[in-house]
């Protein structure tokens, strides 16, 4: 498998034939459970690079924990309810608005279509995730649309209700006029928009020609005005304009307004805002039906008035804003809300009835102008709430809704988050805490169709307030096959008063669906196993947008039901972006699909690339970086092949050479670092550390140090130690890399490392544990300094025109490292390619070289003998290259002849190069042999034949 071009396909055939994935999922069944909860994506189509990254990150940690002996619960899930699905079906059925769903299609058919769509792609997405090398229990996915899951939702809702944490109230909520439903605070996205703001005059009652001046960015809310808010301690003024009008506004903001309208004025009076309390005025649209009974007045508030912009007098429409609503409630101001769910004015708005509010802005402004109430307008860029699904501007509307009383449990959630939740990134935990600090009550009801029905039945008698909350199918009294609206809406109960009780038509916010996943996904409360053994969730991993999404709904639902946040370890990742840091989009033509990467490079290449970088930062995909990944793969594959040629399964001998002791120390230090990183959910650090070890410590350094000892013709001491060490290192590394390179590691294991009696798959092996006896930090430090010395000398050689393969007479090293002085002389002579190495603080007739740990003195003197060695080194290198061109194998012997103006210096050179170039005979003079070539040494031509 390892040598084949279609390595991954061969490995997958092996897995299928041996049912390897199923066996892996069943490993460690009696061991400590490790409960992973998959954040359910919407099952609305094919996977993309973002969802691929998400699942690969999860798979990495699940494989690691499985290899550490834990009984890993890895069940994938899908979010099946909600507006994304409804909108797809509306488009499919040609539905123009929500009314058509009931009048033309019917709830039953609509929900059946939603069901088909929601389940259609689950199998496809499972296959696409599995194709990435992700191992989860694909045959047992949890789905939020299943009957048991919905029943678990009812159980949670009733638990909250029984605790007094569910209530109904008229309150201002965000409404999407396109989706025709309420939008939770955690679903709101703010965008910079440009709107026309207006300065408006409000006529003071009982005073001639006197006006309050207000400012608003939402003219469409002015028909609902019932109050003006002033700050009790700010200084206000009454000014008089030339035309005789008297205006009241904050002193600090007078000049800025007057400059805009270019009008002069004089100040008549100054006073604190508290003097304005209860001053009555005439609302700007007092002639509309909804304003008939309104007695508008000034109220005081310190929190919601500032002097940064506007006039210091704040327009208050309690039916269209949270702050307005709260102030209105405190001061008995009516909360007018003359809007439908489609954002159109109702009959109460008189001539504006049927008009979409944002479209009516210009007409409202024009009417203000006609009435002489418009001071001025100006364009303003400000943050405005948008629907996260369809990007429609949201409307604030006061309407009856059911709420979860999050304000009563907020402090407990914050405390539990601090004490018991481990955020891989501390700043992410702090961001979550900041979100919790400002979290209001949760409007849980939605006026839609495809979701978990709110399990509340209300008495239909007008003067009866009796309600019934259902927490299970048993309490429902009818074992219906399905718990969606078309099945439960017809079910009625008899009220205590004798009248009938009907279910309210709302469904639950879709975030409630995923919030109950820790218990609903494992069948609780219908059955206690496996919930009791798994609880709480050990690990969740999702995108940074879930701070106020899934992480939030999980925390709230967990506290409602079990008085604790249901998870322990949290990892959040950023976004996948296209090259240049742009968002991937069809319009820009920069989408890169997982399949595209797999086709060009392979699954393991993509896995390694996605796992290598810190997931807390946006992942900017780059084809150039994929080339870097490919270079690493070539290094790793060549290193494994090298081991296959020269390594040995023999047990590590008790006596090891210095280089062997060093690489074993580095390996065991690596194991420590990788385990520590993985346990802290910094997997990217372990992937980076393993690549660094493979490329720089193993391939470029250790193999360089031991290559001579591994050569087939080498007969000196330490050969078996090098062979056994090389095998041990590669076998261990292959196991460590298995959670990353899932296919390549399996192929190498089956073809090279698996012995008789070994585990059936590399993925069944235990993750390596460090052997502390092998760790020698002083040795690692000395080798580290050695490498610095080599780098510094290499630079000096390059500057002096001395090639690395040419020996130098002497290198003197000034160092305080005693291990280096005591044990490293032989290695230094070898790696520096020096005739001698000495340790001293100075040396005569040398070139001084500084490096990070000390000073080096390089002797560049070249005598006749040294020059001869250089010539012979060049000869050996040239012949090796010619052998390769001729296609000779290592064991093939050659008869070599050399001819040059320096023949006397080539005499007896065979003693120095025989082993490396496989000589059978050697002579100097007349050339003999079919393979003829030549090279230059310091301006002189050398001819060669064999």
What do these coordinates show?
With 946 residues, this protein is α/β, with parallel strands linked by helices. The protein folds into 5 domains: 31-153 and 514-596, HUPs (Rossmann fold, 3-Layer(aba) Sandwich), CATH 3.40.50.620; 194-317 and 339-382, Valyl/Leucyl/Isoleucyl-tRNA synthetase, editing domain (Isoleucyl-tRNA Synthetase, domain 2, Alpha-Beta Complex), CATH 3.90.740.10; 606-754, Isoleucyl-tRNA Synthetase, Domain 1, CATH 1.10.730.10; 779-861, Class I aminoacyl-tRNA synthetases (RS) (hypothetical protein PF0899 fold); 883-945, no CATH class. The protein is built from 32 helices and 36 strands. The strands form 11 sheets. Strands 12-10-11-8-7-15 form a 6-stranded mixed beta sheet, sandwiched between helices. The chain has a 4-stranded antiparallel beta sheet with strand order 6-5-16-18. Helix 23 packs parallel to helix 25 (719-736). Residues 12-619 form the Aminoacyl-tRNA synthetase class Ia domain. InterPro entries: aa-tRNA-synth_I_CS, aa-tRNA-synth_Ia, Anticodon_Ile_ABEc, Ile-tRNA-ligase, Ile-tRNA-ligase_type2, M/V/L/I-tRNA-synth_anticd-bd, Rossmann-like_a/b/a_fold, tRNAsynth_Ia_anticodon-bd. This is Isoleucine--tRNA ligase.
